[in-house]
Amino acid sequence: MLKTSVSLPLEYAILWKFNQKRIIKSTIRILRIHLRQGKIRRGVTRRYNHESGEFIIITTQFTEAEYDALHFVAASIRVSVSWLIYTLIKLWRKEIRRNQPTKFITNYDLNLCIWNPNAGVCTESLLFWPKVQSNLHSTSRRQLPILC
Known about the structure:
Layout: E1 2-9, H1 10-23, H2 27-37, E2 55-62, H3 64-76, H4 81-93, H5 95-98, E3 104-116, E4 119-130
Antiparallel strand pairs: 1-2, 3-4
Helix pairs in contact: 1-4, 2-3
């Protein structure tokens, strides 16, 4: 587990502190929403939470996979991870969204091409794969899409 901190409005920080394990289950859904709605942003400053009221910094933990996926999306759309967590909590507060099962799994990958004093070249990717539903009584197999 990786320990870090996020800045959240007080009300959301309390929800996060007591429900993080339940909230984090919606991470794939919120990342897919941000990828669908947001565009890669360059030449702009990072967007942070601009809610009114008191903010607090709360220490939290993520798995390496959660941390890498959150940072990849946040860096790509030029927002803070705290802002992503804030939107994740907002999504989780909607009971209808909270009770939907996760239909995808993710795979974050970093491909380091060149990293030396003269150049830094790497690529990151975050792929979403449909979860294969197992049915012990079914003989059919579901095929995953082929990526080129």
